[in-house]
Design goal:
It contains 2 helices and 13 strands; from the N terminus they run αβββββββββββαββ. By secondary structure, it is an alpha+beta fold. The strands form 2 sheets. Strands 1, 3, 4, 9, 10, 11, 12 and 13 form an 8-stranded mixed β-sheet that branches. A 5-stranded antiparallel β-sheet has the order 2-5-6-7-8.
Amino acid sequence: MTRNSHSTAASCKRDRGVSDIIAFVLMFAIIITGVGLVSLGAFDNLSEFSDREQIESGERGLSAAAATLDNLHRQNDTRRSFSLALGGGSVYVNESEIGIEVTGTSFDETYLINATEHRFDRSPDDITVAYEGGAVFRRPGYGARYEPSLTCEDDTAIVSLVKLEADNFAVSKGYDSTVTLNPRGLPGESPVADLDDTLLFSAEVVEQNRTYRTLSSEDILVDVSASANPEQWGNYFEAASRWTDTGSGVYSCSGVETVLVRVTTVELSL
């Protein structure tokens, strides 16, 4: 009887020992799995934050550049400089056109204004921040990050555009990785995705054209269908006062008696 009691007690101790080991292993596995999941989530959040910050930094950089070019455009300065940090993206100058027509007159011009674009390769969609004609847009995106100098109010219309020309680098038709701009004039095969890389631009006014007309209730038409960002221009015009969508990327300011069209050509060099 005593021997059986000792055997039963020993068996219970062994069972408890096995149970404790299993519990410890399970607890350890749960802790390791939990730490792994938390770490993975934190890494994803950190990566998303970094991506978002780089894109927002690109927006701030091009908005600051827009303000600098605005000074050239409005204040009769002749030369300014600005910088753009690549932030893991690619910068290039994209071919772009905007047309302007004043009804009842012979004024009908198309301007090759070009757009400076900062592209970030992000999954599932690429994101591009663009300076075009005096405005800064983000695509995909809605509205202007920096508004252009376009006015339609009472009986007056003012259309002011900044036209970009490239001095020592190529202008592309759409995104082309072979013509992205390299910091400090490095050769084309050099890596340019370093977060510390910065493009230093010199901007010089080479031409200014002003056309002033007094009319008898005419319309001014702005055609952005051949621009680099027609959808973003459309969003801007739809939100702006008194501009009307006439279709096919053309927007109208109607019933005006005074029109000013001002185009400043700025040459960019690195």
